[in-house]
Amino acid sequence: MPVVDVAVIGAGAAGMLCAAVAGQRGMRVVLLDHAEKLAEKIRISGGGRCNFTNRVVTAEHFISANPHFCKSALAGFTPQDFIAMVDRHGIAWHEKHKGQLFCDQSSELIIEMLRAECDDAGVRWMMPCTVNEIVSTQDVGAQGFLLSTDQGQVQCRNLVIATGGLAIPQLGATDFGLKIARQFGLKVIEPRPALVPLTFNGEEWQPLVDLAGLAIPSVVSTGAGRRAPAFLEDVLFTHKGLSGPGILQISSYWQPGEPICLDLAPDLDMEALLLEAKSGGRQQLGTLLASLWPKRLSEQWLGELAASRIADLPDRTLRELAARIKGWAVNPNGTLGYKKAEVMRGGVDTRGLDQRTMQAKAVPGLHFIGEVVDVTGWLGGYNFQWAWSSAAACGRGLV
Ligand SMILES: Cc1cc2nc3c(=O)[nH]c(=O)nc-3n(C[C@H](O)[C@H](O)[C@H](O)COP(=O)(O)OP(=O)(O)OC[C@H]3O[C@@H](n4cnc5c(N)ncnc54)[C@H](O)[C@@H]3O)c2cc1C
Fold it and tell me: How many domains is the chain built from?
């Protein structure tokens, strides 16, 4: 039976980095994963190019019931630290929209980098391997855990749970980490799909179905009165509702039953524009709107009003139209769920974890890192940065 200093369950983004950091410190580390193929989420991330971090990462880019928790780990292992590792491995990268960093070639290179870091650190792989049971050996003496797996037992002093969130179950996502947290008495913040397209009542959405495939820049926010940021990003109309980066971002803040609000002409003072256009002679409303939006959208939006001459319309009608364009409130009836979500929000309640080491305060030796923890990043490389930062904090803090 292998007896090790550290067993890491989950060889994804966080698990591999944590295993490598601990191994490089001279610890005996075993890394277990039930998957046949290594790190599928890294492979498919960023459209196959892995948006591995962001130039600017602060606590404001994360959602958590305990918003300050992530700060210490993010400060201890920064985007620059990960970039330095990527550079050391000769992986070419580039910056895109809003500080997002991607591989020039393929996300496979990030997987290979992490695999090599683990191999250099002498990490022992057990993969594919199913963990059937975990028991604490604390009651029979020193801090430790006994893992029963389909490849026999593993005894470890430290156990790191890095099994990720519930998104994309078709790639092997499980609630293993949440179950282990509950088994050891840790609280779990209710998990929900996040960075996910929003759906609408079929009948209500029917008039907009023809807009599927159309994308426009919008400012997207949740209902008034809640402290959530507004995102200026593209919004994509789909057959079932709305998607695109703006919607994915706001989905992480959306609460069922609430509307979301879209400003469909973010750079324009629509009211002033429409009222001024009244003096423009014979111009039709449809013509004006089609100069700002794709024609399909302006036609759908205006209906019969499209053929009206702006000069003939009362100010009140124009003001109402402007208000609806600048503050289109819609009521999602749900999301496309974990099958289409990029991440899970919620997870292991951070109030039960030490922010410097990710160790469970009440269970010496037990650690949680990465997406299984209730720290959820915005779209844009933030979820990987949390995986790296929490993994490094844990790997460095293991004793
Ligand atoms: C389509 C898609 C695209 C994404 N793109 C990006 C992006 O470009 N940038 C970004 O920052 N984030 C992106 N993300 C999110 C990012 O992939 C995750 O937040 C990140 O991988 C989380 O790291 P992790 O190590 O916690 O979990 P994971 O990387 O998911 O690793 C968890 C590991 O645990 C294993 N596991 C699960 N259950 C068990 C079990 N019971 N027993 C043993 N092993 C188990 C899994 O096989 C897996 O290898 C994307 C997600 C998706 C779905």
Answer: 2
Looking from the CA of 329 toward its CB, the CA atoms found within 13 Å total 7
Q: Residue 135 pLDDT > 80, yes or no? A: yes
Q: Where are the beta strands (DSSP E) in 301-358?
A: 328-330, 334-335, 343-348
57-94: pLDDT as tens digits: 999 999 999 999 999 999 999 999 999 999 999 999 99
Residue 161 Cα to ligand 1 midpoint, Å, equals 13
Is residue 228 domain-shared with residue 170, that is, in the same domain? no
User: Does the beta carbon of 44 lie inside 6 Å of ligand 1?
Assistant: yes
Q: Would the pTM count as exceeding 0.85?
A: yes
CA of 187 to the centre of ligand 1 (A): 21
Residue at 261: amino acid letter: C
Task: Identify whether the C-beta of residue 155 lies closer than 8 Å to the C-beta of residue 6.
Answer: no
Q: What average pLDDT does the chain have?
A: 95
Task: Say if CB 376 and CB 194 are below 8 A apart.
Answer: yes
Find where tokens 């469909």 sit. Answer: 264
In residues, how long is the chain? 399
The H or E element spanning position 24 is helix 13-24
Domain housing 290 = 198-335
